Amino acid sequence: MSRIASCFSKLADQQRKALIPYITAGDPQPDVTVPLMHALVQAGADLIEVGVPFSDPMADGPVIQAACERALIHHTSLHDVLEMVREFRSDDTQTPVILMGYLNPVEVWGYEGFASAAAAAGVDGVLTVDMPPEEAGELASAFRDQGIDAIFLLAPTSSNERMDIISKSASGFVYYVSFKGVTGANRLDVDAVSDKLVEVRKHTKLPVGVGFGIRDPESAASVAKIADAVVVGSALVGRIADLADQPEAIPPALAETLSGMRRAIDAIAD
After folding, report:
1. Structural domain count, the chain
2. Any catalytic annotation for residue 60?
3. 49 is catalytic
4. Quick one: which of 43, 114, 126, 210 could link to 255 by a disulfide (CB 3.0–4.6 Å)?
């Protein structure tokens, strides 16, 4: 059983929901990333999603675009990101780590070579935003060979046919995007998400995580009532931007923000 599957299984036994924070590797500088990952785990993260900086992050709004720009000032590459995961793994062998990024750096590396290096570094899952499942056979096969979960996005506009395709290709969990548009917008409609998740669960038995639009403990708790996992990104990355000139303050500040969400999520089971 993969680390991701094991994590969700344990949470289900405990009747708890997963909290998945997103950060961009190398933001605002490379030496912050690994301490920040550890701080997020201490604050209640069950899995961690690490963004791979890219020059044209088309699925992301201005907050995460700016994070990529800050990371790229330091020339943070896909190789560097794997080294960060490897360093994190030297102290944490349990918390699943998911890479989220775009296809171009993976294609440049080569599917098999990247999958092998990612597995050796301790990566558990990869979400390649601009790789449609219909074209992901070769990449997904390379991931399977290395025990890496291939994670795909579902959207409010996803048809039954597309949900079937993704359910056959995905592993680990399915990531449901709560609204049409880019990351960082504030348009969360929990009732609409709830209705769509009823349809999504007809097509997959994998856990379903919901991201986009989760900004505070209240929105995190409301999503946790209907989803298996809550993914929070722009709210955290925005705090990093606020503290970019105080890098030592970033891990405790984000830990405080995340712990509030953790408490709110756990409270729904009480």
Report:
1. 1
2. yes
3. yes
4. 43
